[in-house]
Amino acid sequence: MRERLIEAANELFYAQGLRAVSVDKVIERAGTTKVTFYRHFQSKEDLIVAYLESRAELERNGVDAAIAHGAGDVDVSLGLMADHTGAAACSPGFRGCPFINAAAEYPDPDSAVRKLVDAHRDWWTGAFIRLVAPLELADPAAIADDLMLLRDGIMVAGYLGEPTKVAASFLRSCQAVIRCAPRASAG
C-alpha cells in the first residue's frame, strides 16, 4: 500500500503541484483510507519526501548507468543523459524537474522537502564531478557547477521551450563548457 500511495502521489504531485494536491486526493487515487495513509506517513510532507526520494532514485540510477556505460568517455555519457532528458521533455505531461518545482513550492531551507531537494542537487554535482574525473580538469567542482546550471536549464527549457531542441542544445553546451575548462597541470 505504501508503494501505491507513492505512485498515486507521483502522478498527482507531478501533474498538479505539491501544495495543490490534498492528502484526500492521494488517498482516493490510491484506493485506500486515511487510516491506512497515516499508518505509512505521519504527514503530507512525509509523503512528499517519499515521492521525491523515489524520483531521486530513478534519476540516480539513470545517471549512474550513463556514466558507467560511457566508461570514461564523457561525450558518450553526456549523450545518453541528453537523449534521456530530451525524450522525457518530449513526453506528454512533462512539467520540468520535480526538484526545481518542489523548491519553488517549499522555499524554507529547513523544511524536510527542501533539505531533500538540496541533498539531491548535491548528489547531481557529485555525479558531474565523477563524470569529468577522467579529463583531469583543474577545477572539476567548478565545471560540475556549470554542468548543473545547464542541467537546470534543460529541465526548464524542456517545459517552457521547444522540447525537441533541448537534448542537442544541452549536449553542445556541456561539451563547450568542458572544452573550455583548463586541465590540471602536469606537475
UniProtKB/TrEMBL annotation:
The keyword DNA-binding applies. Residues 22-41 bind DNA. Residues 1-59 form the HTH tetR-type domain. InterPro entries: Homeodomain-like_sf, HTH-type_TetR-like_transc_reg, HTH_TetR, Tet_transcr_reg_TetR-rel_C_sf. Keywords: DNA-binding. Coiled coil: none annotated. Transmembrane segments: none annotated. SUPFAM superfamilies: Homeodomain-like, Tetracyclin repressor-like, C-terminal domain. It comes from the Bacteria. PANTHER family: HTH-TYPE TRANSCRIPTIONAL REGULATOR RUTR, HTH-TYPE TRANSCRIPTIONAL REPRESSOR BDCR. This is TetR/AcrR family transcriptional regulator.
